[in-house]
Amino acid sequence: MEHTLEYITIGVYLTFLLGISIYVSRINQNVSDYVRGGGQAAWWLVGSSAFMSSISAYTFTANGSLAYMAGPSAIIIYIAICCGLVISAVYIGPWIRQTEAVTFADIIRQRFGPEVEQFWVYFSFLVGPLASSVMLWALAVFCSSVFGFPLIGTILVLGLVVLFYSCTGGRWAVMATDFLQGAILVPISILIAVLCLVKFGGIGNFLEFFNKPEFASDFKFINSDGEFPGSKFTIAWILAMFTMVFLKETNFEKADKYLSAKDGRSARKSAILSCVLMAIGGPVFLIPAMSARFLYQDQVAAMAIQNPAEAAHAVAAINVLPNGLTGILVVAMFAATMSSMDTGLNSVTGGIVNNLIPALRRRFRKPPIGAVAQMRLCRGITIVLGLIIITYALLFAKKPDLTIFDAYMFMNAAIIVPLGVPFAVSLFIKKLPRWSYFVIAGAGLTPSIYAYFNGDSWTFQDRVFGVVVFSAVATLVCRLFYFTTTDEYRERIETFFTKMKTPAVSDSDELTPQDHYQLSLLGNTSFIASGFLCLLLLIPNSIGGRLSILFVCGFVFTVGILLKRASKKKL
């Protein structure tokens, strides 16, 4: 049967990941453990998990399609992410962790009050699954292009697997499997990029293709207006893309991953690690899609999907990877998408169980529920959210004129960024009234509402710039009305900012028993994973193919050695 080897590889790897998830899930004793790992995760675990949660099939499909069409213009996405992570390392990461919040909604309550907290939880339940559904949709497109699976069937099957994984694991399982997935995905991605460059005879020859007549008009960092539909890849588009990605990377919702860190110092180090990994990964992720444009245009065009450019990375990988590693690449991206979905599910579930339900029970004079009941609620709500995500993904797949990239950009520009800007602003501007969130968010949504009814002439960049301008004006207006706030509110805000900017007394680089457990567990799983990967050496391959497999095996094995050595240090 065609692709039998890939199917076996996928089956074994998924079983391994699910085993890790089930094993680690026993750590979960309460909501804090389930949604943020109890705030006891090591910086390297949080940083690698944050990096992996930003990497999914979307990275290889939608972003790959940009690199296929316009080459270096796509790098602006990773530049913006890295800039956002620098701000997170200096300010946002430590600040978020030092609030001592359990969930993202806790921070909202501390900053704005219970009204905004409850609004955000309800909104997250309704809209939060959208981003995860796009990730699932992107993954299904990729698997469909590689293996020829029906798109709808792929969404259903993979969505249900993700649902099981998300429900079982909690944040500890997400971080543990994220780390292992990263240890495999990083060397495979590097390998694909290197093998693509070898096809050209080196990076110099690769760059020469940028100047060839058939590519030069497209492969400029900044393109002229009218060269691409919707004025894509122009200076305005690049500035808008940078602004949107930067704002999304620095808002509260994105920053809640730092709640899992042990302290503010660990949160800072995790953001730095994630930034370094992203700076390396950005060019590495884009090279294969550009190589496909130069070498495999006919194969890309032959892909039976709505937007063939989204399969560019897959086509390059199939052409350069040795037998066996293609399946590992797909599974690694599957696992990365699972982590992106699980992260979103964790945040929304935590807000419902830790913030919404207790508020409702207080209103109806009901006693608080116990830890066991909370864990049951976490899993039950995760199942409901997972089914919503699958439904959204199926609806996206039914839109034949919608590309993955455009869907994701529209969702971010029209909804997520406008509602996230007030949170990012409120970290740096103290003197904002408690009602300012609704005013700033409403102003940011105004361009989106207008474009919905008069959207024919509105480009992506028009929406982004509109959101920024309207939000900035609304922020200035709200700042002027700070004098109307009560003394009680001002005192509460002063307390919040003092706590947020004060390093915790427990900040320490000393290893704890929990650190040793994390190091030992992931060291052992890395050894086991490298052993499974070594079995691929039994598959017929050229010398170059075997060396490629050895590179991946050696990378994962080296990670295991480093972790095990660190775990043997004395407490």
Explain what this protein looks like in three dimensions.
With 571 residues, this protein is mainly alpha-helical. It has a single domain (4-33, 42-562), classed as Up-down Bundle (Sodium/glucose cotransporter), CATH 1.20.1730. It is 76% helix and 0% strand. It contains 24 helices and no strands. The termini are far apart. The mean pLDDT is 83.
List keywords for this structure.
0% strand, 24 helices, Sodium/glucose cotransporter, mainly alpha
Give a short overview.
This protein is mainly α and 571 residues long.
Overall mean pLDDT stands at 83
What is the 3D shape? globular
Largest sheet: none
Number of strands: 0
- The name of the CATH topology is Sodium/glucose cotransporter
Q: How does the helix and strand content classify structurally?
A: mainly alpha
Distance from first to last alpha carbon: 53 Å
Q: DSSP strand (E) fraction?
A: under 5%
Rg result: 23 Å
The CATH architecture comes to: Up-down Bundle
Layout of secondary structure:
Blueprint (H helix, E strand, L loop, with lengths): L3 H21 L6 H6 L6 H11 L3 H14 L4 H24 L5 H9 L1 H14 L1 H19 L3 H50 L2 H6 L4 H4 L18 H16 L1 H4 L8 H32 L1 H5 L10 H9 L4 H39 L7 H27 L6 H25 L7 H18 L6 H21 L6 H14 L12 H22 L8 H25 L4
Helix pairs in contact: 1-9, 1-17, 3-9, 3-14, 4-8, 4-14, 5-12, 5-14, 6-7, 7-17, 8-9, 8-17, 8-18, 8-19, 9-14, 9-17, 9-18, 9-23, 9-24, 12-19, 12-21, 14-16, 17-18, 19-20, 19-21, 20-21, 23-24
